[in-house]
Amino acid sequence: MTTPLSLRPISAPQHREFIAGRSSASFLQTPAWAEVKAEWRAESIGWFRGSDLVGVGLVLYRQLPKVKRYLAYLPEGPVIDWGGDDLETWLAPMVSHLKAQGAFAVRMGPPVVTRRWSAEQVKAGVADESVRRLGDVPPLERSQDGARVIAQLHELGWQQQAAEGGFSAGQPQFNFQVPLVDADGAPRSEDDVLKGMNQLWRRNIKKADKSGVEVTRGGRDDLEAFHALYVHTAERDHFTPRPLSYFQTMYDALLAEDPDRIQLWLARHEGDLVAATIAIRVGTHAWYSYGASSTEKREVRGSNAVQWAMMRHALDAGAHVYDLRGITETLDADDPHVGLIQFKVGTGGQAVEYAGEWDLPINRAIYKAFQLYLARRG
Length: 378
Hints:
Layout: E1 5-9, H1 12-20, H2 32-36, E2 41-49, E3 52-63, E4 70-74, H3 88-100, E5 103-108, E6 113-118, H4 119-127, E7 141-142, H5 144-155, E8 159-160, E9 174-179, H6 190-196, H7 199-211, E10 214-218, H8 223-237, H9 244-257, E11 262-269, E12 272-282, E13 285-293, H10 302-316, E14 321-326, H11 338-345, E15 350-354, E16 358-361, H12 364-377
Helix pairs in contact: 7-10
């Protein structure tokens, strides 16, 4: 008979060591992420089978105004075995613990893939006027594990959060990823990854090289230059930028956890900063996290050059996947978000759908009031 699972708080070093012993986990589930999200109360939890630590989670508690009740949030987590038929044995002790901590609801994002589409399929979908959403395109692959997780969550009373154009309440449900290993798990060569890109991407990488674009890794002192370009990008592309202090905190926290956890990349042309990015890696998974580009000198293709430098670094580091993060589900050629999808599709990777974010109301009355509060905030 299998020893039942128990759950209790664990230390940051225990949490870190467990993740280091796995192929990978989301950077949002590392103990360092708690320091980045200082406005939330954070706790590391561990699942034990006997004395063996078999799963971990980073819980972020957001307090409701005026009452000591919390939304307990596990972004892109927890880090458990999602492949089995009895998720309740994992989730029940977690919910019980979080309830005792004052949680009125639990929100989590199972790191489980449900469907995949090839770059060719996405490209054809954008070109086809009858196709409006990625879900209208038959996928390259449907994951049985993903279907099993979703079925079990429904049975256990969890509620899937509506994804606005592919972005659920917190993290993106649809990502674009470039596999860095082949179907047998063998590392792909730089040449092979380059050949997988479309002609425009290959031409732009070549053009950047010929134009004399130089890509280097920066340090903490270069965050100010990155941030200035990022604010410029935010004004041009109409989004609200994060403050410099956010990136400094993020850089310090992630770097302290692992010297190659976070990297700052800078693309310069004749001394001018034309593109800058932040990459994050946990084990075999590398992410493109933030990017900025100048409106001037777009013709030297700094954005393509810096992406290619990050991919090559991820390959050298033994990563299995290069993750360009979120895309929306829209494939409508008239939608302004399509330009971002087309940029990412050019890398020749795959569109990947995750299970999305799920809520379990513990106190239904407070949860309902919380949803109304969020709806009013817009």
